[in-house]
Amino acid sequence: MWRLWPFDLQILIRVKLSIILQKEFTKKNEELAKKFGMLQKYEQSQEFLVANPDLVCEETANYLVIWCIDLEIEEVSQIKYALHQRM
Questions:
Q1: Residue 52 in contact with residue 32, Cβ under 8 Å?
Q2: CATH H superfamily, domain 29-86
Q3: Which of 42, 56, 59, 70 has the most CB atoms in a 10 Å sphere around its CB?
């Protein structure tokens, strides 16, 4: 059996916590994040984020990247809108 150094254990805990937070965020905000990802104009995006400040976080960016990858795998033409928001 191998032994984990305290530093390694801290990294594993952070990764696990990050995964848990992303799953909770997705469960709670998936519909809003998709709606945000489909907005095309800067002004619309800004108004949407002002109305939904919970989306201004790293988890939204992560979700949009994962969603874009899923859309690309499915070869869906809507990927350009979601990519626009990610950039």
A1: yes
A2: Cdc37, Hsp90 binding domain (1.20.58.610)
A3: 59
